[in-house]
Amino acid sequence: MKSQKNKNTRAFVFKLWKREVSEEKISEKENEVLSQWQTLAEKELDTIHMQESQERVLAALELYFIKPVKQTPIYQLKKYAYTAAAALILMLSVGGILTYNAFYKPDTYTADSGNRKVYLADGSVVTLLKGAELTVEKSFPASTRIVDLKGDAVFSVAKSKTHPFIVRADGFSTKVLGTVFKISQSGKDKSVLLYEGKVAVSSVGTAVSYLKPNQKWTNFGVTHTAAVISLTIEKKSGLQKVKLLSLSFNDVSFKEVADVMQTNYKIRIVYPKETAEKRITADFTGGTANENMEALAFILGLEVHKEDHIYTLKK
Asked: Which is it for strands 145-150 and 165-168: parallel, antiparallel or unpaired?
């Protein structure tokens, strides 16, 4: 019964609302009923409750005669916010990448299929041999002209008395003021061949070597090793004459030292097996094969005996 009464009440209220909206006249009886409801309701509500009730009713009625505005769910707002943030980050990232590439990222030149000439800003010319890679900073040329090289290349460096030119290679570097030279790198084997001018070559664990034209610095493929070789052409035969000018080792196994000396002096060295891994530090600058073998035997605490081109080290 109570449910039916509520239904009747709701129906009556709805009819009144339709008349209010359509501006139809409400009868005296209906006005009287509304007045009674208002008096009864106001007895049970204080001012605050009445205000809240009016606001709730108005908010509910607005849905019927105000065109609804599609509201975006919170998760969609978050989605849009994340999208906008991602777009902003992307723009900043792209801008940063473009800025880095334009102003900071080093220039890299490679010779993939054959030799390639690279003309640097200071007037220097680098001929990259097949497979080589040259890296040049955007700041080049600065007070010191520095480039990085992988592989083999020939450098024709523009002369400058105040701005050294340095080529950083794998484990060694070459410093010049203006000259023409070739850098070769094949596995552990490193070398610098000077055509004209002067260069200073330094590598880890060895002293700096200074080259003159037609001289070559090399490590013979052994770390902590440095040698300077003179390369000249004999006038009569036209053949190249090779002469070892200096040879130094810094904490290198005796076996490796012996291999280098045998190859370059065209000799054979016989030594006790237990000395093979002994570490050797020695400078054989300017000596002959005989003199250098005597010095090596002294370092090892051994005696040396020579027979033809064979040197035998004994206790």
From this structure: parallel
- 3-state SS assignment for residue 314: strand
Note the pLDDT of residue 6.
Answer: 52
Those residues with Cβ within 8 angstroms of residue 280's Cβ, 6 or more apart along the chain or in another chain: 249, 251, 252, 253, 254, 257, 296, 299, 300
Supply the pLDDT for residue 286: 73
Residue 213, preceding peptide bond in cis (omega within 30° of 0): no
Alpha-carbon span 83 to 95, nearest angstrom: 18
Which secondary structure element, helix H or strand E, spans residue 31, and what is its range? Answer: helix 28-44
- pLDDT digits 0-9 by tens, 163-177: 999 999 999 999 998
Predicted confidence (pLDDT) per residue in 43-83, tens digit: 555 555 556 555 554 454 444 444 444 555 555 555 555 56
Greatest Cα pair distance in the chain? 144
* pLDDT tens-digit map of 248-297: 999 999 999 999 999 999 999 999 999 999 999 999 887 788 999 999 99
pTM, 2 dp? 0.65
H/E run at residue 74: helix 74-103
The dihedral formed by the CA atoms of 171, 166, 214 and 225, expressed in degrees to the nearest 10: -20
Report long-range pairs for 258-262 (Cβ below 8 Å, ≥24 apart): 259/222, 260/220, 260/222, 260/225, 260/227, 261/289, 261/292, 261/293, 261/296
- Residues 258, 271: contact at Cβ < 8 Å? yes
Return the closest-CA partner of residue 128 out of 141, 109, 115, 146: 115
